[in-house]
Amino acid sequence: MQTTSTPPGSVATRLPRSPYVVRGGRLQFNYHAGQRRAMASLARFILLLAGTQSGKTVFGPWWMLREIQRCGPGDYIVATPTFPLLELKCLPEYRRLFEERLQLAQYVGSPSRKMTLTPRGEEVLFGSEQQEGTRILFGHAQDPDSLESATAKAAHLDEAGQKKFKYGSWEAIQRRLAIYQGRVLITTTPYYLGWLKEELHDAADEDPDIDLIQFDSTLNPAFPEEEFERQRRRMPAWKFNMMFRGLFERPAGMIYDVWDRDVHCTPRFTVPADWPRYLGLDFGGVNTAGIFLAREPGTQRYVLYREYHEGGKTAKEHVGDLTRPEPRRPQKAAGGAKSEGQWRREFANAGLPVEEPPVSDVEVGINRVYAMLKATAEERLDEPHLQVMEDCKAVIDEIESYQRVLDEQDEPTEEIENKSEYHRLDALRYIASCLVNPTRLPSAPTSRTGRRSGLY
Fold first, then answer.
1. What single-letter DSSP state applies at residue 403?
2. Distances (CA, A) of 176 to 117, 151, 238
3. CA dihedral 11, 15, 16, 17 (to 10 degrees)
4. pLDDT in tens, 200-228
5. How far lies 92's CA from each of 51, 85, 150, 186, 393, in Å?
6. pTM for this structure?
7. Deepest in the core among 96, 113, 292, 324, taking most CB within 10 A?
8. Residue 432 contacts by C-beta under 8 Å, 6 or more apart in sequence?
9. Quick one: residue 291, left, alpha or beta (phi over 0 = left, psi -120 to 50 = alpha)?
């Protein structure tokens, strides 16, 4: 984990430091200890993981301002999980600093959202007007094109811990920064166990490129201690720790609550050609997902070794992309809802027969996946049990974010949160329903009673 004490390329000699206090005719930023450490960090990836209202989002524009001066003219990225979140908080903070307070840039909202340094802004930041322009490009994780359009020098990702900020968006950001090896500031509260925890939080102790900066809401001097204690008294401990302390906890309502990375993940290996293959499919014009399992001969061990997610293709194109990398056709392919017989016929006509799953009930399918995961956790190796190759990160992220809607008492309901977004897990339950003996099923819990505690 990287820790530092001296900020590179400080803008203090030329620029005011904050929108909050005016001293001697100059705006000054009153950094609290957590913000000060983030501004001083030399790490490539800075994860500022903190409680709500702790000064995360408002800090981002100041970090970006310093990063622009340090890295020079070019493109920079600001991204949030959704468009409403961008419009509600993050974008107004950038406009307030760059456009209104310091008058360094002009914002344009159409056809794409971007802020461009003015000639005056270039003079203030770089000492003179530049031949190459400088833009801050604003995007969100639900619009992949908005994250794929630039070769950028730095990025600020606000609330990237939310479920809607998918692992694929994180990968897209890294591709945009690859040429310049650009730095990333992530400002977020933890919301669920997923890619952010595994890629950054858990790796911080061993990776010098990552600086984990974690603090309570009360590190912000403006946050009342009384409110902090009131929330502690009224909220479940897991929720309070996440929302007000910036600590990862296993949330209530996690559907596959037996999931444990240490148990269920296996390093990537080459699957022998003679292992039988199984394919689960979830059909869709925009989202067609596939999950490939291989069974170790002579055992009940199934390994999820490949995931597939594509859209805008014909059935014939999907079949080609699904089967071409494989050494053999799947022993069994199953997928689609009961009403999706036409999809199955289209795939069969293209050369890949797909069976209708033996069960159509979503909860029954979930229980069969749960049975495979639980058999792995309890080492019941004479039953079908499942491991996932550790680089199948998108399906792992879906498993870790698959959750019941909570009621007003933070108890899980029967409803699945954002059910339509879990295409890979739908494909997994379709094929699992073909592989698990229905007479030996455990029940996946729908309430917090008996919920596993602790983290993976």
1. B
2. 20, 5, 35
3. -20
4. 999 999 999 999 999 999 999 889 999 99
5. 21, 10, 22, 18, 33
6. 0.72
7. 292
8. 280, 365, 368, 369, 371, 372, 386
9. beta
Q: How far apart are CA 374 and CA 380, in angstroms?
A: 8
End-to-end CA distance of the chain: 21
What's at 252, amino acid-wise? A
pLDDT digits (tens, 9 = 90+) for 270-322: 999 999 999 999 999 889 999 999 999 999 999 999 999 998 899 999 999 99
Beta strands 75-80 and 210-215: pairing type?
unpaired
- Rounded distance, CA 125 to CA 68, Å? 8
Q: Are strands 332-335 and 277-282 parallel, antiparallel or unpaired?
A: parallel
In whole angstroms, what is the distance from residue 223 CA to residue 331 CA? 59
Token pair belonging to 240? 């309070």
Written in H, E and C, the secondary structure of 142-180 is: CCHHHHCCCCEEEEEEECCCCCCCCHHHHHHHHHHHCCC
Tokens of 283: 């059909």
Scored b (16 or more CB within 10 A) or e, 390-409 reads eebbbbbbbbbbbbbebeee
